[in-house]
Amino acid sequence: MNNSVETQNRDQWSSKVGFILAAAGSAVGLGNLWKFPYTAGMNGGGAFVIVYFAILLLVGFTLMLAELVIGRSTQLNAVGAYRKINKSWGWVGGLGVLAGFVILSYYSVVGGWVINYIVKAATGAFNTTDMDVLGNMFGGLISSTWTPIVYHGIFMAITLAIVIGGISGGIEKFSKILMPALFIMIILIVFRSVTLPGAAEGVKFFLQPDFSKINGKVILAALGQVFFSLSLGMGCMVTYGSYLSKNENIPQSATLIPLLDTGVALLAGLAILPAVFALGFDPTGGPGLVFITLPAVFAKMPLGALFAIIFFLLVLFAAVTSSISLLEVVVAYVVDDWGWKRSKATTIVAAAIFLVGIPASLSMGPWSHITLFRGLGVFDALGFLTDQILLPLGGLMLCIFIGWVWGVDNAVKEATNNGKVKFAIAPIWGFIIKYIAPIAIGYIFISGLIG
Q1: Which residues pair with 376 in a beta bridge?
Q2: Fewest CB within a 10 Å sphere: which of 99, 304, 312, 387?
């Protein structure tokens, strides 16, 4: 460990807006634009949205605040932050660093698919509404050997180029461009979608809850979506929090970030589901909704080719704002603890992640016969490792660490800047992080392992 490197010349966010946009960008990703609409579609639409909101307020805000507090208090990477507060707990931060590394290895593969689909949209490939043709188009892409690896490399190169510039000069600078652009594009798509003839049914399905559809499956789906959508349990918010000044109002930030993230998720639902309904497609289409169903929707939509390009650019921007935070988690650890320069750390870590992503990509095609455990290929096995083990375990340990090791009083002291910032619900937050959140996350963890 290099203590002098940990404390010297640490970069900081240059503005509150920059930090909020970067942190919201970390949370806003493929989970919002790809997973949220189809998860809502498969879990009763409005019923899912209501449950999602309730869990967001209960668990999302609680963990977001907890991670930001640990990061800001210590001004260190995920491993160093836990270790500084309690030497025997550095391994919890290590879970986050490992999760960031593994997630980005396969996330980048999906990011590559998105770039490929921007090219397809721009060259007029989506000129058919035949679901078999579109399904074969997507299947042909992900199962081929070299094309997805090349696009995976392009996506990682974009991520590396931003992170190598540092916090204020790289991540913050690009987040200030990408996030407003993302909001403008998604609002354009929403306007086009909800004004299609017959779109009202899709709006009704998405926003009008049928409470009879709320069951254990819907609650578990919403719980998982909140947890993974907000980048919790993977060290992102601990790392981003470590670049905050001691004057920052953390409770306010921990409220704004989940609200912005949820705003994008809701807009994504309004961008996708009304159009799917209006043009007669299946809203419960699952993961293929973005890559198979939506191209058919754009083919039937007036000015569809233009909106297809805008949509996939939007998805790319969301993917990049998340990927830079995942890479930063690992880079911050290597810079702080190993004493490497940022340029060296970013380049070598990004190259290693790219290499791990190659077998994940090949597992969709030439290596599809290779399974690791539970009959899962490399791509799905890496997803299982992060989604079902590393993230819930990291979140569970975060709650135990704040509630029972560091102590709620110390966390509240840091969150309120020693009483200078109002945090009226501190007692409720303390109760949730000690008792409610661990039970909720434990439920995700056990359900994922036995499911």
Answers
A1: 373
A2: 387
